[in-house]
Write a structure and sequence with these properties.
Layout (H helix, E strand, L loop, with lengths): L10 H14 L39 H5 L9 H7 L9 E4 L14 H14 L1 E4 L1 H6 L9 E8 L19 H11 L8 E4 L9 H13 L3 E4 L12 H18 L6 E3 L10 H4 E4 L2 E4 L2 E3 L22 E2 L7 H4 L1 H10 L14 E3 L15 E3 L1
Parallel strand pairs: 1-3, 1-10, 2-3, 3-4, 4-5, 6-9, 11-12
Antiparallel strand pairs: 7-8
Length: 375
């Protein structure tokens, strides 16, 4: 079987095929039998805590990991990296979701049951969620021996997030389900990236939008840019590309979520001037993203790798192995990564170091050379 890296020449074709099938073929994919569970893990060695700075009172200063709910740091040396099987040059699944609805109307829809099943499978296999911003910037704080996964949601649909009368997330939404799975699996960090348009989560009133964004961002979720009106950026002039992105940036900054560090391309289509999606401005509003995300159709290379393209980051559509998804969607790729563990990103637990088997040292980009911990 070809490795994910060998598929690079056909990424553009696969991306277009997956999206075309999703949009044109409004056939519901049966849920039965599409998500058999597999278990994979990595041995975790003894972690070495970093020294904790002292306050004048003599009490330990809370670490950033304690404040954000992320694991305490370790200091990874070659022997520790070997013990946990660290490979921070490996592939990372960036999963793409759209509507989470009880009755699917399009191939890219998922039911709450299917979504929960996939999250629990990820949790059992040792995946830990991080945001798209954390991934794109290389701020990967995942316990040693575990695997990062990025949960992303396009379009800011009401099924992604909503607050009930008591101010709590509705349990049938994507965020509600993520939180519930995290309660069942405490190591499954409850964060995700929600890319929104001009009416986040179907909310039209500014107060409701502000409350939603505030609730999410205060708890580590990322709310970021998916353009103002979801146009095909490939089909509009460059001036309109900048307008669509900057106008949504204005809204997000007003709501307290800006400036965005990442954006997802509507339909996965890059504009004709590729760099216009990454950075630019319109009528005094500037944007400069750490990462621009496509719509399919394979795991992303490591953000530390020489081949990592911040302007076109790969994602995987969440779906079973039916039709075109036989090779391009989440069930296929999660199974593939389990069968090819040497290809998967495995954390060393130390965000200051990049641990890799010695044979992979050459894959890391040169500016990060001082961080490399090869074994």
């Amino acid at each position: 079987m070809r490795s994910a890296a060998s598929l690079t020449p056909i990424i553009g074709i696969a991306n277009a095929v997956v999206l075309a099938v999703a949009v044109v073929g409004l056939m519901v994919v049966p849920s039965s039998g599409e998500d058999p569970d597999g278990r994979a893990g990595a041995a975790v060695g003894q972690q070495t805590p970093q020294e904790t700075p002292q306050q004048p009172s003599g009490k330990p200063e809370p670490s950033p990991s304690q404040e954000t709910g992320q694991p305490p740091g370790v200091v990874a040396d070659p022997e520790f990296a070997r013990q946990v099987g660290a490979n921070e040059a490996g592939l990372v699944p960036v999963l793409m979701y759209h509507r989470i609805v009880a009755k699917r109307h399009a191939a890219i829809d998922r039911t709450p049951g299917q979504f929960r099943q996939e999250l629990e499978k990820l949790a059992r296999q040792g995946y830990v969620p991080i945001t798209a911003e954390e991934f794109a910037t290389g701020d990967i704080r995942v316990p040693a021996g575990k695997f990062p996964v990025v949960l992303t949601f396009d379009d800011g649909h009401p099924s992604h997030f909503g607050l009930d009368a008591a101010g709590n997330p509705r349990p049938d939404t994507a965020v509600g389900i993520i939180l519930d799975v995290a309660r069942k699996y405490p190591e499954f960090r409850p964060v995700a990236t929600l890319w929104v348009n001009r009416e986040p989560f179907g909310l039209r009133d500014r107060a409701g939008q502000e409350a939603a964004v505030r609730w999410l961002t205060e708890r580590g979720f990322e709310v970021a840019n998916h353009t103002w009106a979801h146009p095909n950026l490939r089909a509009v002039p460059t001036s309109q590309v900048r307008r669509q992105i900057a106008k949504l940036e204005r809204l997000l900054e007003t709501l307290g979520a800006g400036p965005s560090r990442t954006m997802a391309l509507p339909y996965g289509n890059l504009p004709r001037v590729k760099k216009a999606a990454r950075a630019g401005g319109w009528e005094g509003t500037r944007y400069d993203f750490a990462g621009v995300f496509l719509a399919g159709a394979e795991p992303s290379v490591s953000p530390f790798a020489k081949k990592f393209d911040r302007g076109a980051i790969q994602r995987i559509q969440s779906n079973g192995k039916k039709g075109e998804c036989r090779k391009w969607c989440s069930q296929y790729w999660l199974e593939w990564l389990n069968k090819h563990p040497d290809e998967r990103f495995v954390s060393d637990g130390d965000p200051q170091r990049i641990s890799v088997p010695r044979r992979l040292r050459g894959k890391i980009e040169a500016p990060r050379g001082a961080q490399v911990n090869a074994y």
